[in-house]
Amino acid sequence: MSRRQSAATALAAALVSVGASGVLAGCSGDDPTPAPTATPTPSATPTPTPPPRATPVTVPADDACYRLTYRQAVSPTNGESPVPCTAPHTAQTYQVGRIDNVVGGHLLAVDSDRVQKDVAQTCPAALGAVVGGTLQDQRLSMLRSVWFTPSLEQAGKGAAWYRCDVVALAGAEDLLDVRGSLAGVLDTPAGRDRYGMCGTASPAARTFERVPCSAPHTWRAFSVIALDPGRYPGAPAVDDTGAACEDAAAGVAADPLDYEWAYEGPDAEQWAAGQTFVRCWAPD
């Protein structure tokens, strides 16, 4: 019984008690007047309070488009409303699923390391099947996967979804405006060129900035060489692999006797983030 119900019941009992005992028998000579019969005051039956309605859990729509900033795209949650995919947008949802937040019978918080790590692996792994092209095409593109999970408030109401979006980088911390769908975009030469990875200078130059090949540029990433999987091999092993870009550059140069080339290999942090390969670059 709640406090509110206890107080209401006690108050109703007090009113009944006063009504029954507040009428006294009186005396008048030898002929007592019969005392009136006290009529009990009926207690009102409390109207039961209906249970609160459950708030419906809203799940993001698959294949929706959004106009996000770079900062919004790298945030763990997102509450922006979708925009038409025919209008300029910067993110497109390509997968929505349910997070696995029950381990050993225990419910994990939506922001737990386990849940976030699972989503961080699931979304990038599914990107290639959406944007198309070969694995090399994908590694030579500016297309990236970002992902979102419910806020703590939404999770408290029962939300348990994850959302994968694809974005196109326009620079280090900027997103490219897109019109239409990015599904299968790397299957076409035009798509690979528009969203390919180029640079404003050699990646060895201090002025180097990574840009899409549809923007002004002077260098292009044209090939990748995979490193052995496992632990980070160290800078010397990366350098040895990068040296193979020289022969690769000769194969694409207009003059195989006079050409420039460069390579870009991962450091330990980039390796941990999933870049387990070297990119070969040449003037474009």
Describe the structure.
This protein has helices spanning 3-21, 70-73, 113-131, 135-139, 152-156, 189-194, 235-242, 245-252, 268-272; strands at residues 65-66, 91-98, 102-103, 106-107, 143-148, 161-171, 174-175, 197-199, 210-212, 219-226, 262-264, 277-283. It is an alpha+beta fold and 284 residues long. The chain is globular. The relative contact order is 0.10.
Beta-strand percentage? 15-25%
Count every beta strand, where a strand is a DSSP E run of 2 or more residues.
Answer: 12
Name the average pLDDT. 84
State the secondary-structure class.
alpha+beta
Terminal CA distance reads 78 Å
Secondary structure layout plus pairing:
Layout: H1 3-21, E1 65-66, H2 70-73, E2 91-98, E3 102-103, E4 106-107, H3 113-131, H4 135-139, E5 143-148, H5 152-156, E6 161-171, E7 174-175, H6 189-194, E8 197-199, E9 210-212, E10 219-226, H7 235-242, H8 245-252, E11 262-264, H9 268-272, E12 277-283
Antiparallel strand pairs: 1-2, 2-6, 3-4, 5-6, 6-7, 8-9, 8-10, 10-12, 11-12
